[in-house]
Design a protein that fits this description.
The protein has one domain. The chain contains 4 helices and no strands. The chain is elongated. It starts with a helix and ends with a helix.
Length: 145
């Protein structure tokens, strides 16, 4: 379980850092893109964001599932899985579709909604990283049996 917790801790910390950056800096910058440049900018943004997040999100998913397999009745596994479900599910169900609605005429209304919606996943990733780090620290303190 130690390895899967370490993977969760690292990948969730990575995703939390990206989430906070995107929410506080990157998405607000969308409002500064000239309408005629929006299409090429958004295509670039989407492709490059995928490079940064797909691998860590898949690793986070596998590590969360593995913790659940190793300790299915442990409340900590359920808590980690709930954080994963919230961050991953929110991304797929809410923020992903919001990106599809972004267009030059909608940015002034849709970007603030997108930013507001990201609090859920940024907090969920942060919580999952903190919980995994706390569990790792507890495991390091406990004697080997």
């Amino acid at each position: 379980m130690t390895h899967s917790l370490a993977v969760q801790c690292l990948t969730c910390a990575w995703m939390a850092a990206i989430g906070w950056y995107v929410q506080l800096v990157h998405y607000p910058a969308f409002l500064r893109i000239k309408p005629e440049e929006w299409g090429s900018f958004h295509a670039f943004h989407s492709a490059m964001t995928g490079v940064l997040v797909v691998g860590p999100m898949l690793a986070q998913t596998a590590a969360t599932a593995w913790c659940f397999v190793l300790a299915p009745l442990d409340r900590k596994s359920w808590l980690l899985a709930a954080c994963w479900l919230l961050s991953f599910g929110w991304t797929l169900a809410v923020t992903g579709p919001m990106h599809g609605r972004l267009a030059p005429g909608t940015l002034q209304t849709e970007v603030p909604r997108l930013i507001a919606s990201c609090w859920v996943r940024s907090i969920a990733w942060s919580l999952q990283a903190l919980i995994a780090a706390w569990l790792l620290a507890r495991m390091a303190e406990s004697p080997v049996r």
